[in-house]
Amino acid sequence: MAWLWLLVPLTPLLLILPTLYWQRATRWIWLAPLPAGVLALLQPDSLRLPGLWPGARWGLPDDTALALLVFTAGLWLLAGLFAVWNQAADSRRRRFWLFWLLALSGNLLLLIAQDGASFYVGFTLMSLSAFGLVIHSGKTEARRAGRLYLQLAIMGELLLFMGLMLRVHEAGGDMELAAWQGTPIGTATLICLLLGFGLKAGFWPLHIWLPAAHPAAPPAASAVLSGAMIKAGILGLSRFLPESSELIGGWLPLLAGIGLISAFFGVVVGLLQRRDKTVLAYSSVSQVGYLLFVLTLVLTADTPALAGLLLMLYVVHHGLAKGALFLGAGLVHEQRLPRWGWALMALPALALAGLPLTSGGAVKTLLKDQVEQAGMAQLIGVLTLGSASTLLLVSRALWLMWHSQPATRPTAPRLPVWLSWGLLCIAPVLLPWLWPELRQAMLNSLSIYASWALLWPLLLATLLMAVVIRFRVYRYWQHLRLPQPGLRFSLWARRWLQTRPLSADAPSLSAQMSTTVRLRALERRWNRLGEDVVSVSVWVIALAVLWLLI
Amino acid sequence: MIWTSLLPLLVVLSSLVPGLLIFTLREDQVRLRTTLNLVGAVVKILLVGLMLWGVANGLEFRFAVPFIPNGDLVLKGDALSLQFVTLSAVLWLTTTIYAIGYLEGAPLRSRFFGYFSLCVSATVGLALAGNLVTFVLFYELLTLATFPLVVHRGTAAALRAGRIYLAYTLGGGTLALLGAVLLHTQVGSPAFIPGGYLQATLGDDRVTLTLAFVLLIAGFGVKAALFPLHGWLPTAMVAPAPVSALLHAVAVVKAGAFGLVRVIYDVFGVNLMTELDLATPLLWLAAFTILYGSVRALFQTDLKRRLAFSTVSQVSYITLGIALLGPIAAVGGLVHLVHQGMMKVTLFYCAGNFAETLHIHKIRDLDGVGRRMPLTMAAFTVGALGMIGVPPVAGFISKWYLGLGALEVGADWVLLVLAGSGLLNALYFLPLLYRGWFGPAPTHWPHDEKLGTGRPGLGETHWMLLWPALTTAFLALLIGILAGTGLSPLNWAQLTVNMEFDL
Amino acid sequence: MTQVLFYLILGVALWVLGLHGLIRLHQPIRRIISVNIMGSGVFMVMVALARRSEDPDPVMHALVVTGLVVAISATAFALRLAVTGQRSEEDRE
Amino acid sequence: MIHEWLLDGSLALLILTLAVAVLYVRSLYASIVLFIAFGLLLALIWARLGAPDLALAEAAIGAGLTGTLLLAALGRTPVSQRAEPAFSGARQYVRSGPAVVLSLLIFWILLQAVLPLPEQSSAVVRAAEQHLDAAGVAHPVTAVLLNFRAWDTLLELLVLLLAFMAVRQLLPSLPRAPEAWPLLLGWSCLLAPLIILIGGYLLWRGSSDPGGAFQAGALLAAGAILLRLTDLLPAMGWHHAWVRLLVLGGCAFFLLVGLFTHWLGAGFLAYPEGWAGPLIILIEVAATLSIAITLTLLVIGETREVRG
Amino acid sequence: MTAALAALLIPLFTALGLLLLRSRSGPLVILTSLATLAAACWALVEVTTSGPQSLHLGDWPEPLAIRFQLQPITALLLVFTALIHLLVAVYAARSRHCRTRDTDYWPLSCLLQGSLNALWLSSDLFNWYVTLELLGLAAVALVALSGRKAYGPALNYLLLSLGASLVYLLGVALIYGRYGVLDITLLATQTEADQSTRVAFWLMTLGLMLKAALWPLHLWLPKAHASAPTAVSALLSALVVKGPLFILWRLWSEAAPVELAIETGPLLAIAGVAALLLGGWSALRTPWLKSLVAYSTVAQLGYALMALGLLMHWQLPALDAALWLFVLAHGLAKASMFLAAGELQATLGSKRVSALRGTTETMPVAMFAFAVAGGSLIGLPPSGGFLAKWMLLEPMLGQSEHWPWVAGILLGTLISAGYVFRVVALAFDRADPVPPDFKPDRFAHWLAMLPALVVWGLALVSQPLIAWLTGATP
Question: From the record, what ranges are coiled-coil (chain B) (predicted)?
Fold first, then answer.
């Protein structure tokens, strides 16, 4: 049974061939993550693959992994279904599917990897393939975003590679991720890993590629990028870092700080954006900040299991909600939605802001509990503020979406699209009822106190919005142009590479000629000296003889 | 004389004899020539297979004839040499097929294939060389056999390249020869043995040992394209693509790298190297070359030149691996010998395909070529990603072992070198891939030779040009994915290293 | 200073003179003469050496005879070569 | 004693002056004439040093034949090419200054080398005297030439032959010699038979007294040249079998003797007991004829038919 | 000894017979050359089986007689001479531009061989003088065969050769005056390092160096060798210059007092290095093909001179093997090179190196022969030149105080690679090939290839050869 794990990453890969050569197969491509989902339910033993590299092992170590696998497979499945119809008219869809499948394969592989190398392989495959998704449209903006993405992804890869090496070395050659949990970590390793994974996860200040890349990709791709892929960074950190370590202890405040900064930075900058998908992307930056913060909790908490649960729930929650929003954003650019469509769209948005009865509410409450338990009660207020700001941000996103609709008559989306998108939209509401862990969290959040704690920031935010819209406060920052250091750097790098230094090994022709001529003249003079040959020879000999005599 | 002692000789002869026969053929005897070529290549693969089997089963293959006092001419098949021999045999087959397709209708093919076979014979001889004298001998012969290939086109540029090539390699050969004689005068030329033979015999003569080491490294470093000695390689790019492929992937640069391996492990030995602290400068040099080659590659506009500088960089991985003097790094170095071969040969095949099919030589002309020649471009992509070190292509495995090996011996900074090189590799390879796949394709290709059917897919170019590239790309992928299996190069490298380090 | 030594020195002097001529001169016939003078010097040395004993040394004398014949042969050839060579140079002009 | 020294001293002074003059006199013609004088003086010195064989040989070969050859060459050298190119201006003296210094240096070194030589003696001489009885001839020089060191002599004949052959290879260069004047005609009618007679005598005498094949051959050649120049002797074309036979006879016979002695006798060029005398005479006769004809041909030069 | 005598006499009789019969029959010479070769081989076998022999000519006792000495080296040189002569004879008989039909090439070449054989066998100082003259005259006569343009160089060669002979002869006279013997073995027992001996040896050495064209007395060689007909160039470079070298070697390794040899050795070795570099440089720069080959002879003789000088200086008999290997390898390679060069320039109708453009296409075999022979000159393994270089390097690298000499070899190797590949690289130029004037003669090309292959084939017998040479030399 264990060999079935092979199917998880291989199914997408094997599907590549029919995709390329058999047009009609594309219609079923979205089923590629299915084996992963099935296996998650079957839960066979893990598979050892010494033939790949020593210590290779695929399987599901714990429930977190299981949940993530199911959720990721589900997100990819639904986004895939969306994409089948969304991309149907695209002339370059074969390329899209190629990269889609590659990225999918990588994403699934990293989830089932139980050893560092497999994780890295999957991670790389996913990162690099996503490039194809980012630049898919081929527009200038997409190409720029893609370039930046790739540049940073490669750097991330290399940092990660170094971190991985160092980690393996620290573990004495052991590649098992489980074993690393108990192995102390060095500073260099930690920095490498933080930067490497951070670049993927996209928290501040490593986020610079994210707001450019996610909006550029096709909607389905944005959905998996923001929903599934950036989580790989957080997952990687949690897998690679040891559970408790003195060194980590020193770093945690910093990480937590970064997380929180990221959370608010995303909001502030996001609010200033004028494109819906960009706003959503900044929302991702903000949410990843929370995730990083949660991760620090996991690493400090007395009961890591609970914090771990929080992390898992948060990941799933954000993934689904953000996936739904991105798909929706894609949808509204193509057609006008009917009203119930907007109602659906509001669900994930509110969930993100932490509306009670949604997954968001559950997760936020759980988060506050954990923060309190961790003895950082002073941060509760900040988190509350965070909820309010999140609502502001998603509202801004929805508002922008509304305004970017085409001016046609509203139509209902086609069934598969509707199905996939709709499922994702209601997931934040539905999921708490279906998933025991989440259900428990949601029920906890339904107490009056907790509900109020969740609601009042939302109300505050709504009030604020009303004020802003009423008094057109936004006009003060409407023409504000934010610097884009990332893109700037990327462009500069490209230009630097394309301006070539003058070739040093080709001196000017005249200089060469004159040297040759001079040398030739010198040689002639020597030759002339040699013509009086015999005398020269005799002189040489005479000197030699004299030398001998003396 | 039993067969085990004849087999090494036969392996050499299996390309030498066809080569010499080919010289005598007329230009128009195409079929006979092709047959000779292919029969030779296949026979060699079979013989090498037999030898692999034998070595795995503990047989000893040794052929010796007297040559100079205390220095016999010895051909010997051990794990290390077989790794190189196998690479040569396999790549010879593919390159032969490729060359037949590449040169179809070109003049002077008999001469070309004759020297081609001689070149491979010299490489195999060098791989099987059982002592330093034999090694140096084949090393020089390799230079000679390669020169006509480099200047084969007979243009001014080719001649210039040929002259530069000779200036470097003959100079290096002479230095290596001096080193060999120096050691020979002290202790004769005993067989290469794991752990080296010098410590037992010449352990305390520091000056001689250092001088010999410097001479040998300088000598072999020329072909291995170590930093100040690499100048011939990029200019030698004017040769026809199969030659570049052979030069860069198998024959010449690997001969140099292999020489370094032999010198460090089987002549000096790790203990002696550590004792004399000889490896550190070499390590720095290799590290510098890795970065230097990559930086230079970055600024090339010509596809083949870029690949050439990439070779400069990549071959130094091997040097780096062996200079680290640790078992894991050694595995990385040795396995890169094969891995780099597979990947680089793929890249050159592909570059040749572009040049032959669409007359693409400059990088800026690559735009959209992936749509016209997707399979070639795919093979190219595999090779390029492998060079960067992207898993699961073979290059990743090498890098992995190199990195771990560096950490093992405490040379953590090497990790930065590897990462830096990976970054640079990405910087100069990814734009190619980008142009190929995503660049805007011209509406029609101005110089389309219409090889094959002329349509994307299996007929995108001549099948003899396409299939070798696909095969080697596939192999590069395969040996990366299946690195842990018994038949992989990695395993052979491990085997060798176990012997060398007495594990 | 004996007679032998005297002629030895004389021979050496002639030899040196001849050598000097051979090196310094360019006209072919003069150079040929120089060689002959050089030869005479050597022969004089040899004959002087033969004179050391009471009965002159026949071996040396024989050697000198041989040397003389060699010299005349070579001179004959050299002269013809020189003359022919000169004429050919003239022809070229 | 003193007059002996006077003689030696004046001879030396004269010959050195002559040598310098020969080399550096401006006119090539004068140089050649002086060189002939130099040869005659040298013959005198040989006689003075107790070497009558050499004196004869020098007179015949060195002075006579060489002089003839030189004059003939001079006659065929265009005036423009007679001058020594370096003999102009003061510059040449500046340039030759170092060469003179160098020559003096060499002279000085050689002087050091020859100083101790008069005290030494030779083992070969003693051996030669010891074995003279078995040599087959009474005159020691002939014994050395044709018996003790016969191989040298054989090779020397080959040298002569080679020189002749070498000359034959050259392209024809000379206009025919001018018609002989009548006086020469008359004199040669008289002189030639005399010379031939003296030559025969020298040859015959060579076994016991100074004289021998070379001297005889040279004299014969001189006679033959005279006769040939006056057209009293028929042209000695190479196509005549007798010319070839005579030219090659010396070497061939010598070599055959060597061959047969090796084959039949004691060893290469070891004459059988009692045969030494007659064999040497025979060889001398053959050699004399060879030398005579060869030298004649060398001087008058019959090259026409070598290159068809 | 009979065999050796046969090897000596057959060429002489052949020459006389040819002259007598006015025959210009190449096949006859080839036949007798074969016979000579057989005799020489026989002598070699004899000397290998029963040791060195000596023959007193005329059966006279020790100091009086001229002595023939048949040492292993002598026998080897006999074989070598016969081999090269045979090869060149076949070439000359075949070739259209060796002037065999309108000149006395055949008897001259036979006399040349005979005189060389006489030189190898002799061990008498004065006899060597005569053989040297014989050799010199034969060589000049052969050079002059190629017509008026060669007369200038030939005359220069002749005069310098005569002068050199007289320098040598003065040395011999001094030796005779000092010790009263001419036989080299007898001399060996008596020599002392006094002033007379010293000067005598220097004189002989200088004379021989001039004859062997050893640096700095080499300047007559390039023009003479280059202007000779092809077959003659091959003979001259391969054989003739080795004669004086042989005498030089015997003088210094047998007869010279040890102190003197030690003292003089470095000078010769330095001259050798200078020859390597300057000769090589000239070869690198000259625009004429045959001059290039001739200058390469100058350079390659530098190796031999270096070996000789170091042999004297270090008193290392092991270097004998190096010296003679150089001689053999150079002889074979140079014969091949000159034949190839001659064929190339005759067929292309130009004497310039630059005319060789594209010859790998038009005359592949000849060019290949040139390249292969050049490989041996460079010393690429496993050619004969390599073996020699190896033998020379070994004692040099054996002790650290000898190391500086290695630089000479290194540079020499590089520079020879330079001039060989200067030609070879040009031959690969396909852009603008020079068309041949007439159809290339494949047979002659293969003939040129033959010695080159032999010199590389020495590798097959290297071990016994080296062992034999090391054991064979005294």
Answer: none
